Amino acid sequence: MGKRHLGILALAVILLLSIGVPSFVTASSQQEEVNIANNHVKKQVSLQPIDLSKKLQRFTYDAGVNFEYPEAVRGIYVTGPSAGGKRFKSLVDLVKTTDLNSMVIDIKEDHGNLTFKPEEGSPYADIGLNFIKDPRKLVKELEEKGIYPIARVVVFKDSVLAEKHPEWSFKKNGKVWTNGKGEAFVNPFQKKVWEYNVEIAKKAAELGFQEIQFDYVRFPEGFEDYDDVLDYSLGDYKNSGLSNVQRRVKAVTDFVSYAKEELEYYDVDVAVDIFGYTATIPEAPGIGQNFTKISKNVDVISSMIYPSHWTSYFDIKKPDMEPYKLVTEYAKVEKEVLSKIENAPTSRPWIQDFEAPWLYSGATKQYGKAEVEAQIKALNEHGINEFLLWNSGNVYSENVDYTPLD
Description:
The protein is an alpha/beta fold. It has two domains: 51 residues, no CATH class; 321 residues, Glycosidases (TIM Barrel, Alpha-Beta Barrel), CATH 3.20.20. The protein has 13 helices and eleven strands. The chain has a nine-stranded parallel beta sheet. Helix 8 packs parallel to helix 10 and helix 12 packs parallel to helix 13. The two termini are 26 Å apart.
């Protein structure tokens, strides 16, 4: 996980401080030799008296909160309006009265806005919405209730930033390009976009969130089909000598690596949401997601494995109708891929707690207690004990057993 570096740094300091006098120095000359040795060390490394405890405190940021990582994260998604509104109490009650223990809370949402108003003078003041009146107070409440807080930061889907900086986006006929849903994306080749989002993640860490979960870490869906008609910069990747596909993969992977390195000081874990099907192929050619390469640069990998989002796959004609079978087949594939990675990240998939009426001309397959438990059971049977529940409206099924194998 992210909190691994103090031991090494402490050892280095202790070794430096332990420089002393060889054991064979005679008693008569020992003090003189000590003085010479000490003076030599001071000249070479300017060694001064060190308060080791204070020195170590400088290596990581202290947000002033105390959370224990759960034995296994079992969480729900919470929007900004839910986190800052009347629904929050019922969501807290859901977590506290079940085997759930975590919340993934929007800090930067899908349109590109912050879900709270940052401090006056912040470069992000103009994108803040007043959903969460006091995010620090929210984190402290979660601390008191023992609910593990995860900050969701949407990265490259960002209509707000695209309109503000068209030069950081994709354009068509001189205007900011949008997909079929009217959503704009910013360009993963632009390192200014990386910095913009990572600075927001740092703010979340300072508020006390224990983990940063980056979402939409990708190019727009189907990008391989229309990148030739869009106007955008390749930035530092222009002369890379890579194919278009490999350029996209490298840009996305490099962003994740950059974010991980930048957040080391804040002692938070880094997670990335990723399309589930990317675990089944070498890499997704349009969106630039390579499951293995991203996994090597994060603490947590969260595949979105909603049965409704698969077409005929794993020889399952209608995956939405067979949640247990779909998740079982996925888990087998993911386990194999992660087994080949040294220091593999924690697997924590997103699972489905919503209906998908767009798939049906008649009655829609309903998702409730049985369907949610089926997905969790399939994960648990393959050694995946962490999961997150997605419902965009934050309305979750009742009476679910979130630890069905216990």
